[in-house]
Amino acid sequence: MIWAEHGITGPDIYYDHDAFKDDLNSYAKLLQKFSKNWNAYIDLQYRHVKYDINGFEDNPDLVIKNNYDFLNPKLGLSYTDKEWSGYFSYSIANKEPNRDDFEAGKDQQPKPEHLNDIELGIARRSSKYSWVATFYYMKYRDQLVLTGKNQ
């Protein structure tokens, strides 16, 4: 508790609703050099998330039992030569809603977020100076913003 007007008077129960979250992750990466200057890579992440939520303070009868399975791949290509380097990558990322995103009610359940990300980067490093530029495009589907609602 971070603030109390008249102090804490006893061992009052502040929160008494069970919630459980299990998260299983697996990850693999393959890096392949196919010339002196060029590399390609693939990253794969698998996630299984299980939510068991048995009520909230403002909605104690709301019971949530959700399972999510996500495959999050990333593909990339990189180049290096003396002072220059660059890369291109494409990735897909998925994320489950946070526990408090479910509080809205049975009819307003959030969906997982889905992101497509494209990145392009270039850099030059010398003994006198260095610079880096990165360009990216991120496209969300069902993005959970601060309100907890899907956008």
Describe the structure.
By secondary structure, the protein is mainly β. It has a domain at 27-44 and 71-141. The protein has no helices and six strands. The protein has strands spanning 19-33, 38-54, 63-81, 84-95, 113-125, 130-141. Strands 1-2-3-4-5-6 form a six-stranded antiparallel sheet, with no helix packed on it. Strand 3 and strand 4 form a beta hairpin. The protein is elongated, with a radius of gyration of 23 Å. The two termini are 32 Å apart. 2% of the residues are buried. The mean pLDDT is 86.
Number of DSSP E strands: 6
Strand content: over 45%
Structural class: mainly beta
- Tell me about the largest β-sheet: 6 strands, antiparallel
Percent in helix = under 10%
Roughly how many Å apart are the termini? 32 Å
Calculate Rg over CA atoms.
23 Å
Number of helices: 0
- Strand sequence of the main sheet, in spatial order? 1-2-3-4-5-6
Write the layout of secondary structure elements.
Blueprint: E1 19-33, E2 38-54, E3 63-81, E4 84-95, E5 113-125, E6 130-141
Antiparallel strand pairs: 1-2, 2-3, 3-4, 4-5, 5-6
